[in-house]
Amino acid sequence: MNCIIIDDEATARAIISQLCSGVPSLNILEEFPNAIQAIKYLNQNEVDLIFLDIHMPDFTGFDFIDTIKNPPKIILTTSDPKFAIQAFEYNCIVDYLVKPISQERFSKSIKKAESFSQNKVNESEETVADEGDSSTDNHLYINIDRRLIKIDIPSIYLIEAKGDYIQVKTEDKNYTVHSTLKKIEEKLPTDLFLKVHRSYVINIKKIIDIEDNSVLIKRDVIPVSRSNRPELMKRLNLL
Amino acid sequence: MEQPNLSYIQGMSGGDKAFEKKLINIIKLEFPQEKEVYYKNVAAKKHKETAENVHKLKHKISILGLEKSYDVAVAYEENLIEGKTELKKEFEAILQIMTVYLDQL
Fold first, then answer.
1. Of B19, B26, B59, which is closest to A99 when you measure between CB atoms?
2. Cross-chain Cβ contact A18/B63 below 8 Å
3. The whole model's pTM is what?
4. Where are residues bearing Phosphohistidine located in the sequence (chain B) (predicted)?
């Protein structure tokens, strides 16, 4: 099984790596001190098993599982037995190892991972995928300075294209992200958001007023292109 | 007071002396850094951050075979989460014992 280790503590990574080296069926591909780096790696590489620490600053092990769409088998490693119940909510979690991990307990865990049925993983994938779909109704993760920040979708009122970046404006804060309008549009509910200009996507629920070729959202006056105006008018509850 | 030992490290290393040395070196490198952050947060009275530091340090406490001290660390971490600093003195005495022990290795 191809594995990766995610733990912010170098000592813990060294111990897990050593324990893995005693099991011929395990192949450690990479080690990561945080979950964000691992997410990027998983986007490009196939992994069968993840040793995942729960307690990490900023982005916990559970945040990590919630973020990846098709999680492989996961063995949680933690100093906190109190998260065990929460772990059972995830079908992809094979086992829960409390640190310091003994050789004997580790071996048991690997046997569990090897016999963990493919059906169960598939179940897990479906569940998480479903959760992912439903969660996109409510929130979106954006990558800023190697951190994934969760944004409540209904709080977004405007997205503006700025060269290679987009600016996402929400009720509380504005975020500049390296992405395109097209990409973010695909992630947003079409009943709420509309592209009114090649550089602007707006939340139609947040419109204050409309003039001939512009809309006022909060304090921003946004141009509406001629080609997008009919669709905007169709979506409004006009008298 | 109980003393640190290498029983866990020797037990899990499977007799791999090179690994034992490597792990001790990692601990010797990481422990002072974690300790420094801990003391900074204690001085700043940042209880939540301090609890996170204790959480990380308690793994090293257990690796060095300090079973009773581990229980003290667990209780201290919980106190900090509740905004209390009881067991601070006891916890810092554990850190001191570990520091002396690691310096000797």
1. B59
2. no
3. 0.66
4. 55
